[in-house]
Design goal:
Blueprint (H helix, E strand, L loop, with lengths): L1 H28 L4 H11 L1 H13 L2 H7 L4 E15 L7 E19 L1 H69 L4 H36 L8 E3 L3 H4 L4 H11 L1 H21 L5 E13 L11 E13 L7 H68 L4 H35 L5 H9 L1 E3 L6
Antiparallel strand pairs: 1-2, 2-4, 3-6, 4-5
């Protein structure tokens, strides 16, 4: 009977191994990598494309501000027809039809407009803020893509763990049922095994649902169904060379993308104060125009005498603001309040950047410690599997013992992979908080990722 159970056990393992190998081969042929997912997300993620559009809109601000320093030319034209009845002295009314037309070409060149010069500097600050906000969007896209990628990988491995656990309890149920039939077991053993099998089935369904949820989140970012193969991280040497925390805090205080955006916003608010204050200053413009007009006569003249006029005019126009109902002072007070608001938001951004650095730095350090502990757990689980296999061959262990040891090994490997993913993710968050996250960092991370089968000893 033992030989029959042994044959059944190894036949099940062989079927599972062949099925897993075939699935991994078919998926690995066209499996997407982390870098390819990020490139896809750059073209498909709506949130990132909105940030690109916002940057493109902000880059038009300097052109608009520069236009305020250049001359403007306008052409106006008109054509009129006036009909009516007129009478002079005691003469009878006469029908009149007077036609006129004309056009004017006018040039206005600002000579002294302080607000326009300040607007140019303000536009540069607006572009700087938009560029920093776009850098924030780039960092967020990279972090969201990597996190979603890692979540799918962990969910795939969790499903494997749930399946091996279900296989183990199913084998235990088969042994319990056989023992009950031959009289070496009790019905209680059968019921306990059935309960474990039902629980294992529920856990497998939960794992499948979690995988579907994680895949849908990644699909939302890249715009298509992901095609991933099981992977693991084999090299965290870059994360181990972190350097001192103080250096990361110094970088975050100046290079963090959100901090740079708030610095530019503060500068823009300061320019707005100057711009509104300049509304009190006089303005001086150079004006030049050329006009041509024609009229066939007038309604108030006894005789219709046509006339043409060609004129040119050059002059200076000075405007001195005297009173605007208090609007200018109100605009200045509003700008000063908004400047203070921007200054406080900059302080918040700097504190948040420092907090993000500390959390990510601690996450990397603690993650590496967890990885080392789980590596020892995986090695111990492998030893347990080998020991149970030897015990099974000599008759001191049964097939459920081997399956349980295998399930424990898969779970330990899943936890190790998750810890490695978390440590790598915290490193990327640390780089983003310090304003140093680049696309090359994702490429470097890609080189440390290998297929799960290839990483097996």
């Amino acid at each position: 009977m033992k030989d029959k159970v042994s044959d059944t056990f190894f036949r099940i393992l062989k079927v599972l191994a062949l099925a897993g190998a075939g699935a991994s081969i078919s998926v690995a042929v066209d499996a997407q990598t982390l870098v390819s997912l990020y490139e896809k997300a750059r073209t498909q993620d709506s949130q990132f494309r909105a940030a690109q559009a916002a940057l493109a809109a902000a880059q038009e601000k300097p052109r608009q501000a520069r236009a305020g320093l250049l001359p403007t030319v306008n052409l106006t034209a008109n054509q009129n027809q006036q009909t009516g009845q007129t009478a002079f002295d005691s003469a009878p009314f006469m029908e009149r039809n007077v036609q006129s037309w004309g056009w004017t070409l006018q040039l206005t060149h600002p000579l002294l407009r302080w607000g326009n010069w300040i607007a140019r500097d303000q536009a540069d600050a607006q572009v700087a803020a938009a560029q920093a906000q776009f850098a924030v969007a780039q960092n967020e896209l990279a972090l969201r893509t990597v996190q979603a990628y890692f979540d799918v990988e962990v969910a795939m491995q969790s499903l494997v763990v749930a399946q091996t656990q279900l296989d183990a309890v199913s084998e235990q149920l088969a042994v319990a049922q056989h023992g009950f039939k031959v009289g070496s077991g009790t019905v209680t053993d059968v019921h306990e095994a059935q309960a474990k099998q039902a629980l294992g089935t529920a856990q497998r369904v939960t794992a499948m649902n979690d995988l579907a949820v994680k895949e849908s989140e990644l699909e939302r970012i890249i715009g298509e169904s992901p095609r991933l193969a099981p992977v693991r991280i084999t090299d965290l040497s870059a994360a181990r060379a972190l350097g001192p925390l103080a250096e990361w805090l110094r970088l975050a205080a100046s290079d963090n993308a959100t901090v740079r955006a708030q610095q530019a916003t503060l500068l823009e608010a300061q320019h707005q104060v100057r711009k509104n204050t300049a509304l009190h200053a006089p303005t001086l413009d150079l004006t030049a125009n050329q006009a041509v007009s024609y009229s066939s006569g007038t309604m108030v003249s006894p005789s219709l005498v046509a006339n043409r006029v060609h004129s040119q005019q050059v002059g200076l126009q000075l405007t001195v603001p005297l009173y605007a109902g208090g609007a200018t002072r109100s605009l200045v007070r509003e700008a000063v309040a908004l400047e203070e608001k921007a200054r406080q938001e900059l302080a918040v951004a700097q504190r948040n950047a420092a907090s993000q650095v500390r959390q990510a730095y601690a996450g990397v350090v603690n993650g590496l410690a967890q990885v080392e502990a789980l590596q020892a757990a995986v090695q111990a689980s492998k030893n347990a599997v080998e020991s149970n296999k030897i015990g099974y061959r000599i008759g001191t262990r049964i097939s459920p013992d081997v399956l349980s040891a295998e399930q424990q090994l898969y779970q330990a490997e899943r936890d190790l992979n998750k810890a490695q993913f978390d440590a790598a993710m915290q490193e990327l968050k640390l780089l983003a908080a310090a304003g140093k996250l680049q696309e090359s960092d994702l490429q470097n991370l890609q080189t440390a990722i290998t297929p799960a089968d290839a990483a097996q000893p």
